[in-house]
Amino acid sequence: MMMMKAWRVHELGEPADVLRFEDVDIPTPGEGQVLVQVRGVGLNFPDLLMIAGKYQERPPLPFIPGVELTGEVVDTGQRVIGVPTGISGAFAEYAVMDRAAAWQVPDGMPDDQAAALYVTYQTGHVGLHRRARLQPGEVVLVHAGAGGVGSAAIQLAKVAGATVIATAGGPEKIAVCRELGADHAVDYLAEDFVGPVKEITGGRGADVIYDPVGGDIFDSSRKCIAFEGRIVVVGFTSGRIAEAPTNHALVKNYSVVGLHWGLYRSYQPSLIAAVHEDLSRLYAKGAIKPLVSQTLPLDQAPEALAALSRRGTIGKVVLTP
Ligand SMILES: NC(=O)c1ccc[n+]([C@@H]2O[C@H](COP(=O)([O-])OP(=O)(O)OC[C@H]3O[C@@H](n4cnc5c(N)ncnc54)[C@H](OP(=O)(O)O)[C@@H]3O)[C@@H](O)[C@H]2O)c1
Q: Is 8 helix (H, G, I), strand (E, B) or coil?
């Protein structure tokens, strides 16, 4: 049996405490699956949640974490991106993917960017278009705009013809949001964003609020959502799941829209395919480009995950086996 290096989680907890870099068997693809040599792993906040046992999916222990990769199909050499299947995650030299969900890398796209095109851009596309029904000319407020999910959402909202206001923690991240195309950027660690959003929108508020942070940020978002606005609940990096009082939604005439992109993979794979095609087209014409701030060797996964959990990353961090 051929062996590979992989990070495995034997018990749930902090990455530095529970991840072990081990020699394990190269996984065997089953019916309808392909073996992929991993070329890049996109880090995602859900990796932290899964390793801690706080995610909606809980793979049986021990498991290899990592939900996003780019690599080469061993049999054909085809370059693909997507989500690995089963307990054989992306933090490894090889992974298994469903053949039907191994999407072609856009022509000419380097590995580090390809490793960052899938989860966050699919989430942004489905969140803004499918769930929030974004219209050209609307105002989109993107929270944590310098993060992985946020940076993709800024680019996608701009491409869709929206005016974008971004929030982020600290001056460096604010500058990143502007470079990504945000028309306005607010340091929400230095000031409350509600006043600036109202000022920018002439008192109306934002039509779409894309919120991967939750907690206090969700609570304040309710104060600057426009008439018929949509607050998209993307995640809870703040660590608190906020309440959404239904009387407030009624009185102000807005919607709170849940987004679980991963469910479309089983409920409506045709949407994933259509979004991948659109993202490939947008990449080819230079309209989107993943912001990869760091490319690190796979053996530095615990350090990279620690930086992600303490708000110490910008855009995407990619690991290379
Ligand atoms: N709904 C879906 O289908 C879906 C899909 C993918 C990801 N997600 C969710 O989207 C969120 C973002 O994921 P990501 O991978 O792109 O991460 P990320 O945004 O790159 O990193 C997390 C960011 O959240 C902000 N943040 C605010 N309070 C924080 C806190 N107390 N601790 C840590 N971070 C805090 C930080 O930005 P600032 O310093 O600028 O505040 C930080 O950089 C996660 O909640 C994830 O689960 C949801």
A: strand
Report phi then psi at 125, rounded to 5. Answer: -65, -50
Q: Is the CB of 215 under 6 A from ligand 1?
A: no
Strands 292-297 and 103-104: unpaired
In a domain, 171, yes or no: yes
CATH number of the domain at 303, please.
3.90.180.10
Look at residue 86 in the predicted model and tell me its pLDDT: 74
Quote the ligand 1 centre to 206 CA distance (angstroms): 20
Query: 1: pLDDT confidence band, cut at 50, 70 and 90?
Result: low
Q: Are residues 227 and 155 in the same domain?
A: yes
For residue 225, pLDDT over 80 is answered with: yes
pTM (whole model) above 0.90: yes
DSSP character for 171? H
Mean pLDDT of 257-269: 96
Ligand 1 centre to CA of 235 (Å) is: 7
